[in-house]
Amino acid sequence: MEIIQMISQMGFPIAVAAWLLVKLEARLDSAEGAARELTAKIQAHMDWCMKCQKAICGNNCEKHDGR
After folding, report:
1. Are 38 and 45 in contact (CB under 8 A)?
2. Is the pLDDT of residue 66 over 60?
3. First and final CA of the chain: distance in angstroms?
4. CB atoms within 10 A of CB 65
5. How confident is the model at residue 52 (pLDDT cuts 50, 70, 90)?
6. Which residues contact 59 (CB under 8 A, 6 or more apart)?
7. What is the 3-state secondary structure (H, E, C) of the chain?
8. What is the C-alpha separation between 58 and 35, in angstroms, rounded?
9. Could you give the percent of the chain with pLDDT greater than 90?
10. Cα distance between residue 6 and residue 3, in whole Å
11. Angstrom distance (rounded) from CA 14 to CA 12
């Protein structure tokens, strides 16, 4: 009898927790995709900036050739 009471009392909180986990997983997947996209855009911008910096200083600047 105790087990049945425990299940009836805990069933709703367990269902809510499971629902929240499913919703959270979808949001985390979305956030992960956005973070990857942002990382790629930032990297592309950084690459472009480095090309501009090298062009400005004549490609023989210690600051820009990785020394």
Report:
1. no
2. no
3. 75
4. 10
5. confident
6. 65
7. CHHHHHHHHHHHHHHHHHHHHHHHHHHHHHHHHHHHHHHHHHHHHHHHHHHHHHHHHCCCCCCCCCC
8. 34
9. 19
10. 5
11. 5
35-64 mean pLDDT: 80
- The pLDDT, as a whole number, for residue 37 is 95
Tokens 């979808």 appear where?
26
Question: What is the percentage of the chain residues whose pLDDT exceeds 70?
Answer: 76
3 state DSSP class of 66: coil
Mean pLDDT, rounded, of the chain: 79
Sign of CA dihedral 7, 8, 9, 15: positive
